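so my prof wants the structure for this chain in the tokens format not the other one, which i didnt know existed until like an hour ago. anyway here's the sequence
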Amino acid sequence: MRYVSTRGGAAPQRFSDILLEGLAPDGGLYVPESYPMADLAAWRGLGYPGLAAAILQQFMDDVRDLKALVGRTYTKAVFGSDDIVPLKTLEPGLHLLGLSQGPTLAFKDIALQLLGELFEQVLGARAQTLNILGATSGDTGSAAEHAMRGRERLAVFMLSPHGRMSAFQAAQMYSLQDANIHNLAVKGTFDDCQDLVKRVNADAAFKARQRIGAVNSINWARIAAQVVYYFWGYFRATRGNQESVSFAVPSGNFGNIYAGYVARRMGLPVRRLILATNENDVLDEFFRTGKYRVRQAAVATSSPSMDISKASNFERYAFDLVEREGGALGGLWRQLETDGEIDLSLIPRSGFASGRSTHADRIATIRSVHARYGVTVDPHTADGIKVGLEQREAGVPLICLETALPAKFAATIREALGREPERAQVFEGLEQRPQRCASIAADEQAVKRYIEAHAA
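here's what i got, hopefully its the right format
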């Protein structure tokens, strides 16, 4: 398998090279030259590690001992059960896919635990080090840091928006004392953090000199790992390979639902991918109108991990919309930078539905799901369930993707249910633990100076 850039200006690369590189040299995102085809009959009976190995082999065919690496990643010890991703049936035809059973209680663990193993193996084989530069709106940062902590060949520099995460999310990151973990609280929004990552990566000389890599979903390995649980959920919610299902997915940066799009391109019988946004509804507007219009700044909401006004992974989807013409995509993105919007309304966008959820909707959904099914969901998952039920079609099973556990968002759960969310004993007193974090301006040069002073 070889990978090409969405901007069309980079030579095709093997997986191990794009794993370490993150963004392509031309500023684009890497995608496979073509989508591999699924073998539903052969894959249906596999356990999660076996299914992950079979699917990831299609994308990572140059990784040595991939099956063993995957087996070390997806274990009961790390994810709490042999299922790794348990499917809970709320009622006939309505399911909740439990993606948040990993060490940081968010779906990002599924991919980032794998990424830690991949980085360690490839860097060890090449006798290299890597400095990870990432941005987080809440969950990517903690999942990445817990996956990379203590790894000798890696240093992590994670940018987060100052004061924009829940206290639990911030404490999960800032309480880590490992020498290779560096938290930088940026005076700005997540979009500012994400822009800083892109600008630092755009400096080719600095990137090469400091060996800069990525853990955000601009790294294709993240997407590939997330493709697996769409197949897993489908196999557990259906009895045969001819039945179609729909997935409801809370979405901010478009990575999670884009993985579902890849699964469908591989042949998974997905009728509709139902995208749910919060008040930051750039993606909902696009799928309703065909116009992609970024906002000046994201609004702070009670589902903070989706407080994003520019979705990085949308570029990968747009690349397919323009029939994989890198020049055309590059022109659109230059227009987006200049005008703040692009119009793709004349290009068919079949297979998606979308909707918007507000704070009042989240509170109402958390209450109704708890009353009806005895299940407590976090505010992001509530956004997905709310929109999923609005767009649900009779006779088509609906799988709602859980994105985090309620313990991470205690204030919203208290408002909805009048009590504290349950949390495992290991997280008791988390917010009171000593925290280590540097405050920094939303300035590219300040980020570079910090990396130079603390690089692996």
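also thought this was worth mentioning. The domain at 83-103+221-417 is CATH 3.40.50.1100 (Rossmann fold).
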